[in-house]
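Box 3.1 A note on notation
Throughout this textbook, protein chains are presented in two layers. The first layer is the amino acid sequence; the second is a token string describing backbone geometry. Keep the layers aligned when reading.
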Amino acid sequence: MSASPALSDLSRLYQTEFVRSARAVGVLWAVCTLCFAIIQVVILVQPSWVGTEASLHQGRGPEPPSGTLGLFEVSPHVEMSKCPLPECRGGLSTLSPLPSFQSVAVLVGLSLWAVWTSVLCLVLFRFCSAATVYKICAWLQLTAGFCLALACLLFPDSWESPEMRALCGDQVTSFSPGRCSVHWAYILAVLGVLDAAILATLAFVLANRQDALLPPDTKDGENSSVSPKPSPKLL
């Protein structure tokens, strides 16, 4: 017994709405990927991974150093006599990170490369199947999240360094920042790991649903190539 025309039209309507919703989710995923790539640049260049806590100086003795520290430079509010300029500061212009945070900077750089490569892969939607592009971007975003997670774990382990001791005091040890505290750039890096995991998961979901997003005419065309068997006549 064949389906009624009303049910066929309703099925096509649901299929059209499903395609539109999937395309809207794909556009939202692409926009979030671009935003994540921009956030990665901010994470890498901002000297606000750790910084001194706000405190009032009582006027007894020299004022303790205060400021913020990133992967490439120390931004002191008061000149730090314990940390000579050539040995303790890198430079963003020459892409030379601080000596104690070189491995962290390399990991963040690899994460930055992976996520920007996924952004460039969006151009492949015009040349390759959507499922393939989604899977490529998903693996790149997983790589970016993995490298960023390693950087977030290695950064506190590198706190026992001349740069941190000059800014945060001699009581600094690994995973103990002394007078300092983590600032917004490090928190943004931690959130970036979660963002990469969500984007990669969404990309895998979109890739696996591409077969369901085929236009109805394509499926009808495939089925029409096979001639239907004649139904037996009822006596």
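Residues 216-235 have pLDDT under 50 and may be disordered. The chain is about 55% helix and 5% strand.
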